[in-house]
Amino acid sequence: EEFYKSLCSDQIDLRRAAIINFSDFLVQRWYTSSSFMLDKCDKKILFLIMNQLLKCCNDPRSQFLFEAGRCLGILGSIDYSNFAQFDQEHTIYRKIARIPIDDTSLIDDFGKILLNELANAFLVVSESQYQDCAAYAIQEITAVYKFSTNPSKEKHLLNYFTDVVQEVIIPHLTSSYSSKSTPCKKTSDILFGISCSSYKDWIKLWCSTLISSLSDGKFRSSLLKPCYAITRYYVPIAELLLPYLIIILFDENPSWSDCISKEILHILKLVQNNSRINECEIKAVETIFEIFDFLTDYLIGETSEALKTTIHNFLAIFCKKNLCIASLACKSYARSLKYLEKYVSEQTDKNFALFENLY
Length: 359
Hints:
Elements: H1 2-7, H2 12-28, H3 34-40, H4 43-58, H5 65-74, H6 109-124, H7 128-144, H8 151-158, H9 163-169, H10 199-211, H11 219-224, H12 228-231, H13 235-252, H14 256-273, H15 279-298, H16 305-316, H17 320-329, H18 333-346, H19 352-358
Pfam family, one: M-HEAT_ATR
InterPro entries: ARM-type_fold (IPR016024), ATR-like_M-HEAT (IPR056802)
Keywords: Kinase, Transferase
């Protein structure tokens, strides 16, 4: 606590001395695991310290850039989600826009994000058939949120968007695009490297396959099923929706965990068996890690105990050692250290030979 006060001091010399002393302390205690620090230290103070160090690193002209960076490097294996309960003013972990279960009176954060992405897709894609796919999704989703049922409400809803996005949305409030029924695809087959030859093909096919598996007649399905066509052509929409689809399918039926883990384990195994992985495999692994991060963050504030249990059980399927190796292959070193620490802490014999080798 005294260090934090010194770190926030207006006196530059005091701040410099505080950061240097803290850096030296961490270097001397480099062997102390982050789990030990989280157990022994006041998490709230540790959270504030890390935020202040991040501020020091945010300015490239900072006089404390090197020492603050060294402190953060040593603390780098601490999972920021541990500090979620203290994050009221600053963002150090990703805020998750939760997808609504039931109809709401106003548009929610997820709806805003999705419509913004669809409007961007409409503006970016050049082929008319792809534009039609984005237009259909915008038309259907604005109808779900009841944009056009009341002129005053419609104006209020549109105010959530920039003028550019409004120009895209407004014509589709009265458009009449139609779509064939979404085909139900087989979900038990491995897709990566078998049905798809590139990352883009894989992410689009996996996402559209999961959309086709959503149950009909539910509010969340009415938001995502209209996106089936555009996800087959536009990668950013597929990347946005993929983790949400996994959440929804887990909520509908926990057995989906087996199908989705099968695809992920296949990719991780490919990475483990190849001494040199290609760009396609790297991007696929990075997407998997983003899914894991999303699921971890989604647990924060989740009220459904059944869904929380399903997510916990799903994340527990994946061996931390394998995740560490996959992180190393992708040159994601901080993440690799995090998984390594978790793996070693779970071993009863404390396999330090393995620790040293991986380190």
